[in-house]
Each structure stands twice: as structure tokens, then as C-alpha cells.
Design brief:
The structure is a homodimer. By secondary structure, chain A is an alpha/beta fold. Helices cover about 45% and strands about 10% of the residues of chain A. Chain A has a 7-stranded parallel β-sheet with strand order 2-1-7-6-5-4-3. In chain A, helix 1 links the parallel strand 1 (about 10) and strand 2 (about 40). In chain A, helix 2 (about 55-70) runs parallel beside helix 3 (about 85-95). The interface between A and B is medium-sized, with 35 and 35 residues.
Chain lengths: ~300, ~300
């Protein structure tokens, strides 16, 4: 395993769209800077970024502009996984060449019931074709969406075959017994496990994990990063409970439109609420309810 | 609804890959000609074509070369659905400009539990952006893979809003009661329903459907096309039973690698067996079993 410059907590950064539906690069850059100033790294082009609603070419164009505009690639982990080897290699190579500290890679997610042999062959082909010793892949396990769980045997094969390139994973299985098994089997070998949901952040840190990459980091970066840094403090359970309270306040709303609505609300910039189809923005009523829920727990965001 | 030049039966054409893993365009062209000479149209870039394992750019490059090489766009229905509006519009516009009689369009398949509002907005945006009166969309309902069932209310909204562009569907739900409901509600309005599996071909024709687009057409085009043309004949049930026998012989093997193995076997061209990951080719043992199963029912292919 290689050393890393990645922060323990990263936001799967929501993507701002302008009136023409294009990514507003300057706004995205400001959001990345705000996240960094709140101790979080940036996992752009993740599920919360509506990554798969953005073409590969548009994503790589935006990445180039962000870095040219001052985004630090050392805290950046773009999502580069697509259904085809060719598109995954294109995006991954671009990210590695741009100096990104890692890439977040979905398994090919079209076919279902695929075999471990097929998944292994897929990642192997991507790694061979990228052919760059700087490559740091964080496998993205999100079976609630992909319907493709990445089992321990597959992880073992990948880590054994490519110990220099397979750097870790984001686990959004929602299944703590699975996460725990991954941590137990692989973290001592330098494999970095990010919880895909901050409700597992403290447990992940205590079991030898690296941090989290979670939707809520978009709106609550500092407290997530603080807990990841202070998980051994005596009040760690209390810190986790505070994070859990924010999630509980928002759990009844759809995740991505809600993260965008929260940022729109506190930045007083309604443009942030735009999503691309097939997602749908919150209704006015949902927005009001959301604001009320957050007011009830005294949650607010400043500095946007 | 517009008139169409599409045959009733189309093959979701398997994609031949060369030793470098690239599409062998000349071989694909010959296969398309063979299918046509056996009365089938060509739904290139479908699920059986490993469409999502091929980049959008490679697909459109291949389409251009196929048509330049003599493929008749009037019998061609390329798959052009991707997860993003941008990629779907790119491929759809290319296909329409090339004169293709229709396009087969998946719903955006990354997010799950998406709303009808979101799906409607997606297709509406694609149609508006393509902005071409020749556009003929065949919706591709394949919930076993996409996990996104397209309900009757969504179909009603789309057909009502875009009667000139929403031309029909390929239904691979595997749920005859759903197919029947679609046929009952929409076929009298000119909406063309293709069964996504030839086991439903006769039932589809009897209920007012148009034909089928099914993996098995790759290896048994003429008999599928014959049944679609002669479904009112007195021996139609017998013809259907003959198709069913071929499927039954192969049902225990994984579909796409098996279609390729069958063509490789009868064409004596082992290159046909290549697949792209995450799919995996049949093992030697599976290939032998497959050949034996087909021998047992006296199935063979000539003219390849």
C-alpha cells in the first residue's frame, strides 16, 4: 500500500447546475474550498454528485477546470467508475494524471448476478490499461444501488493481485457485519475503509477504518471530520450522537435533492436545488418541512 | 404514430471482439447481413450486444461504419439509452441522423426507486434535445437488470405527451400480465410492443403486438420471423413450441456468452466466443454440454 494525503472525511460533493443545466464550475470550486476549510476532502462525481447523470467527457472537463482553478488534487477522490472498461480507463487515467490522491470506482453496474471472475477481470483490465504506479483505487461498494455486492473473496483476490493499486474502499452496504468483516480481514494490510454512511463513522474508526465518505458531509463537514480525528476522546459517543441527530432529522427526505436543498437554504442560493433527471427536486412543502426539522435541532451552516 | 420499416423480429446482435478486444466491424456487418437474409432486423447495442460494456463513442463509430458498409438503417434499431441525458442524446441524435428506423432506449439505470416524474422528465429532456421529427423511441423495459419497472401511468404520460416520438417498447419484464396490460391499453393507438423474450412471441402477436427482440433471434432468426409472420396459421402453437424447445435446451447457460458460443460453434470461428468483462465466456465443459444439448434437438445453423 502507498501512503496517502487524503483526509479521513470526504464529501461526495453535490453538483451545482446552472439555468442551462450545465455544471457551474466556479460554484463547485467554491463549495470544494468551503469543504476543505471545514476539514473535509472532496469525493467529486459520487452518487450524491449525480455522477452518472453527467457524461464522462463533461466530468473530466470539470475536473481539469477545478484543478486549474486551485482545487488541491491531494484531497480529491473523483468517482471514475462506469459500466465499460474504456470509459472507466479514460476517467481514471485523467484523474491519475491530474494528481488526484485516489479514485472512487464503482463496479460495472449494468449486468446483474455477475461472477467474481468477471468482476476481477474487469478491475484487472482497468488497472492494466491505466498502467500507472500512482493509481490508488478505492472500490465503491453500494449494493443498494448497483445490486452488485463485492464479497470478501473478490476483495482478497484484488488486494493480493494489485496491492499497490487497490488502496481501500467506500462501503455503502449499510450492513455493519460486512463492514466489520472487511475491516478485520484487510485493514491491517493497509487497506483503507471509509464508511459510506456517517452513522457508522465511530464504529469504523474503532475497528481500524480510515474515515467516511457520506452525503451528510456535504452539510456537516466539520463535525464529521472532528469525530474522525477525535474518535478516541471520551466524548466520542456523544459526538456520534450529534451526527446521528442530523441524519434523523432528514431521513424522511430523498438524499441528493435534500443535500442540495439544505445548501440552497443556508446559502440563500435557490440555484443549488437543481437536480438532473431522473432525480427530482424537493417540493416547496418538503423544503419548508426540511427547514423546520433543522431548526428544531438548531442546525445551521455558515460561511457558504 | 409514424409508419415503420422495421421487421417484426429483431436480433439484439451479439458483438464480435477481436484479439485486442475491439469490435470487429466487418464481422459484425456480415452477421447483420446474415440476420437480414434470415428475415430478422438488427437491434445492435442491446443487452445481448454488451452495449454498456462499449463506450458511447465506440458505439457511434461502429454504427457509422456499419451503415457506410451497407447495413440498411431501415431495419436497424440501435440501443441508445445511457444513464445521462447527454450521452443518450448524443447516441440517439447520431442514430436518427443515420436514418435508423428506431432506437431502443433504456431508462437511466443507475439510481433506484426513481419517481415517474423523474423518468418522465428524463425522456422528455432527451426528446426535446434531440429535436428531430424522425425520432422513433422504443422504450426498453428490462426490470430484471435495471430494477426500474416502467409502469402503465408513465407510459400513458409519455405516449400522450410525445405521440410522434414514443413509438413502442421492448418488454423484457418476463411478466406476461404486465405485457398484456400494455398491449390492451396502448396497441390500438399504434404503440408497437416487442416481446423481449420469444417465449411470449405468439401470445404477443395474438394480443395485438408487433413482434419480438430476443437473444434467441441471434441463433434462430428465420423461425422466429416465420412465426411472427404466420401467427394466424393453424400450426402456430406448434411453431411456438419449436422455439421454446431451443430455449429450454440452453436455459441453464448464461445468455450472452451462450449466444456467442453457439455462433462460434456453428461458424467454426472461436473468436466469436469472446466477451468483455464483467461477463465471462463459457468454460470448455459448458461449451461441450451446450453443443450436446443442441445436437439432442437436432438444432444447427447454416450459412454463417
Amino acid at each position: 500500500m502507498q501512503a496517502t494525503t487524503l483526509p479521513a472525511v470526504l464529501a461526495p460533493v453535490i453538483s451545482p447546475f446552472n439555468a442551462q443545466g450545465r455544471i457551474d464550475v466556479q460554484k463547485l470550486l467554491r463549495q470544494c474550498h468551503w469543504l476543505r476549510s471545514n476539514d473535509a476532502g472532496v469525493a467529486i462525481f459520487g452518487t450524491n454528485s449525480e455522477s452518472n447523470s453527467i457524461s464522462s467527457i463533461e466530468k473530466m472537463d470539470v475536473l481539469e477546470k477545478l484543478i486549474a482553478g486551485g482545487l488541491d488534487p491531494k484531497i480529491t477522490m473523483p468517482g471514475t467508475g462506469a459500466c465499460s472498461v474504456a470509459e472507466t480507463v479514460f476517467m481514471t487515467s485523467s484523474a491519475v494524471k491530474a494528481g488526484c490522491a485516489g479514485v472512487l470506482m464503482l463496479p460495472p453496474f449494468y449486468y446483474k448476478d455477475v461472477s467474481d471472475d468477471g468482476l476481477f477481470a474487469y478491475f484487472a483490465e482497468v488497472i492494466e490499461q491505466v498502467g500507472d504506479s500512482r493509481l490508488q483505487i478505492y472500490l465503491y461498494n453500494i449494493p443498494p444501488i448497483t445490486k452488485i455486492p463485492m464479497g470478501l473473496e473478490l476483495l482478497e483476490r484484488l488486494i493480493t493481485a494489485y496491492p499497490n493499486s487497490i488502496a481501500g474502499m467506500k462501503d455503502t452496504s449499510g450492513d455493519w457485519s460486512y463492514t466489520e468483516a472487511v475491516l478485520k480481514q484487510f485493514s491491517s494490510r493497509g487497506f483503507r475503509v471509509f464508511a459510506g454512511n456517517e452513522i457508522f463513522l465511530l464504529r469504523t474508526m474503532r475497528a481500524g477504518g480510515y474515515g467516511c465518505i457520506s452525503s451528510m458531509v456535504n452539510i456537516d463537514p466539520r463535525r464529521n471530520a472532528y469525530l474522525a480525528a477525535h474518535w478516541q476522546d471520551s466524548n466520542a459517543d456523544q459526538l456520534q450522537a450529534e451526527l446521528d441527530q442530523v441524519r434523523a432529522a432528514l431521513v424522511k427526505f430523498p438524499t441528493v435533492p435534500t443535500m442540495k436543498a439544505v445548501i440552497a437554504h443556508f446559502s440563500k442560493d435557490p440555484d443549488w436545488a437543481r437536480v438532473r433527471p431522473p432525480l427530482v427536486s424537493l417540493t416547496a412543502e418538503q423544503k419548508n418541512q426540511m427547514a423546520l426539522e433543522l431548526e428544531n435541532i438548531n442546525f445551521s451552516i455558515s460561511g457558504l
